[in-house]
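User:
Can I borrow your eye for a moment on a structure tokenisation matter? Would you put together a sequence-and-structure record for a protein of your own picking? Please set it down just below, with no commentary around it:
AI:
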Amino acid sequence: MSWLFLILAGLFEIIWATGLKYTDGFTRFGPSLITVIAIIVSLAMLGLSLRQLPLSTAYAIWSGIGAIGTVMVGAWIFGEHLSALRLGCIALILVGIVGLKLTN
């Protein structure tokens, strides 16, 4: 169950990181509310995952899911460029996430 909480935490991190783009510096109520709710849910899920997972593993995987997902959302929704170097760096993050999962 802890791994499910951690994956959900990472997905909500992607939502709140993307939401920041829409808040316009937290001047837009709707996007700001969604972003704050996503932050709370993300941190709550991360906290629940820490009941059984080591902090170092959970935090690294949480931030990795958020980083990879946010890069993908940036490319898909905002048309941000994905160079071969950026894709290679994302692959390295993914390898790190898988490695941390396998060592736990």
About this structure: The helical segments are 2-23, 29-49, 55-78, 84-102. The chain has four helices and no strands.
